[in-house]
Structure formats: C-alpha cells, structure tokens
Specification:
The chain is mostly beta strands and about 120 residues long. It contains no helices and twelve strands. The strands form two sheets. Strands 2, 4, 5, 6, 9, 10, 11 and 12 form an eight-stranded mixed β-sheet that branches. Strands 1-3-8-7 form a four-stranded antiparallel β-sheet, with no helix packed on it. A hairpin with a 6-residue loop joins strand 4 (about 35-40) and strand 5. About 35% of the residues are buried.
C-alpha cells in the first residue's frame, strides 16, 4: 500500500521560503513519476510540479523560477523548495505518486496516490 506523508508546511511572510518534504513508502518509489499539487478551499486542485524517474522536471507557469521539485531516491523522499512566496501561494499542498490507472493526468504523468497534505500560509 502506497503511503505518502508530507511535512514542512507553515506560515511565512511574502518573499519568504519553505521546503516541503514527502516521505514515500509501500511501492517502487524510484520507478515512479512524482508530483506536487495544491488546493485552496472552494477551488479546484492545481498542479504545481512534476519530476519523472529520470529527474526531469516540469512546472506550472506561475511557479517557474520560484519553485524547485527534487527527489532523493535513496531516501524515498520528494521535495519542493518554494522561494519568493506570494500570498496567492497559500494553499494545502499535496504530494502525489504515479499509479497505473490513476485518474489525474498532469504534465505527462498519471497520478493516483495522494498524501494528506501540508498547509502553506503566506501573509502579505
């Protein structure tokens, strides 16, 4: 059973930085595309970034240049470094893993497993 546990969220002022982590277990992490998504209450889930099994990355346009997704396959951990944070980045951030039959397509990967989320709040 796939388990994804996010951490690293918190409250920061605009312009600040946070680093999110996602500890993965229960599947072949190194063979899976991984991603970060976010959701604001009352709005649809939004893709943030994706990293494939080769380490190639892709980002939503509004995150390019500010966010960096990375993975440590030895630690089965996914990261999201967020810099120059803006109030509009305030959301619950979710880690996601590729899954055969997953229902969410984003930037070339099919996602089907999700973490519980970690809250990021950016104040102006």
């Amino acid at each position: 059973q796939v388990q994804l546990v996010e951490s690293g969220g918190g409250s920061v002022q605009a312009g600040g930085s946070l680093r999110l982590s996602c500890a993965a277990s229960g599947y072949a992490y190194s063979n899976s595309c991984m991603g970060w998504f976010r959701q604001i209450p009352g709005k649809e889930r939004e893709g943030v970034a994706v990293i494939d099994i080769y380490g190639s990355t892709n980002y939503a346009n509004s995150m390019k240049g500010r966010f960096t997704i990375s993975r440590d396959n030895a630690k089965n951990t996914l990261y999201l470094q967020m810099n120059s944070l803006k109030p509009e980045d305030t959301a619950m951030y979710y880690c996601a893993a590729e899954e055969l039959g997953g229902l969410v397509w984003y930037l070339g990967c099919r996602f089907g497993s999700w973490g519980q989320g970690t809250q990021v709040t950016v104040s102006s």
